[in-house]
Structure formats: C-alpha cells, structure tokens
Amino acid sequence: MTKAIFITGGGSGIGRAVAQLFASRGWRIGLADVNAAGLAETAALLPNGAATFVFDVTDRAAWDAPLAAFADGGGIDVLFNNAGIASGGVFAEMTPDAVERTIAVNLTGVVHGAHAAHRYLKASGGCLLNTASAAGIYGTAGAAVYSATKFGVRGLSEALDGEWSADGIRVRSLMPGFIDTPLLDASLAGTNYNVRQQVRAAGLEFTPVEIVAQAAWDAVHGDAVHTPVGPTAKRMRFAARWLPGKLRQQMRRR
After folding, report:
1. Which pTM does this prediction carry?
2. Whether residue 193 lies in the annotated active site
3. Which InterPro entries does the record cross-reference, listed alphabetically (predicted)?
C-alpha cells in the first residue's frame, strides 16, 4: 500500500524539498501552508501532484478537515510538523506581536498538529516528525524567542516519544543549522540586517535543503529521536555536551 506524508510549510523550503524526495520514492503527498501560490508551485513539481490545503497551523480547529480529507485517501503514515517562521535580533527590541506570532507558529502550531494527527498515526503505526533547530540544542543569542520555541519542540518530541510508544507511534525531530530557504530573509529586530546577511557575516555555512530532505527520510526510518542536520548543528551538539563553557562564551560574544 502506498505510504502517505502530510507536510506543513509545504509551500517552500524544507517542506518542498521533503515533498519532492518522498514523492520520488512513491509516497502520496499532502501539503499545507498559508501560501496558496507556494503550495501550487510545490505540487506542480511532484510527479503525481499533491493534495493541497490552505490553513493556519495556529488555529487548532483548522487542522481537522484537512487531515480527515487527506486520510480518506489511504491514511497518514507521517505528519511532518514543519511550518515555522524565523525571528531574531535584539530580544528587548522585538515587538510583542512578533514574539507572540513566533511562539504561535513555531510551538503552538506544532502542538496542535501533533494533537490533531494522533489518531491517524495510531491507526497507521506511523511517525510524527517535527522540525526543531540547532537553536534548540543551546539557547542562541540573537534568537531568544526562536530558541525558546525550538526547545519546546525538542521537549514535546522527547515527551511524546515516550508517551506514544504504547500506541506504536514513532516521534522524531530534525535539528537543522542554517538552511538556505526564504526564512533567512526575515529581518532582525534592532538591526538593519536579515538572517541571511547575519549568517554570512558570522562566517557560518548554509546547508542545502536537499540534505535536510534526506535527513527527514532517515529520521522517519531510523531510531534516533533527534537528528542534527548540517555542520553548525553537529558542532553545537558536540559543544553543548563536551564544551558548554566555551559555547557559553561564544553566545556572549554574539
């Protein structure tokens, strides 16, 4: 039977790359985003198209109809909780609206997705895959609220990995470093730069979305709860475990 994956944030970036990889391997694809044009562009890139759904992941009630409609086509084997927004800059200069929107999309939306998808994943013995971040490995100066949300996704993934094992559901998270997607064009509060410019100024590398897509495939089919993706994420995981003092000093210099 054909496997099926439902992907939020499917209109661009990581969501699009994951859709392309899984579709190339015969999976049925469901895409969700607030960007209808982006969804159409992604679907057009897939060999058999995709079911597309326009809704806001922060609205819990909005999840139910799309998941039910997609599941009617043959169940749901993977929910990829990937929708997210980038935010950063000087914490004290972020607007309350920016803080609340970041928390709503990056954390509350992931919680809603997990809650809404549980019964489908239990029926299929499937996998919940959440996009966390290297910023969820150690709190990142200049991205305080973003880091907080990704620590939340990390904690949720670990908790549900334990709680849902009795239901036969695997729970996994991706922890990418800096991925070359449109998210990096977000402006930084209190600066004249966007995220992309700041990453380049710091001499850090970008990881191609195709590498993240393969990491998503490996995570779904592997046993590790967390999968760091890219050199930055792997360095941070090593430093957080073995060199926490040095990592702390690096964050202070930022």
Report:
1. 0.90
2. no
3. NAD(P)-bd_dom_sf, SDR_fam
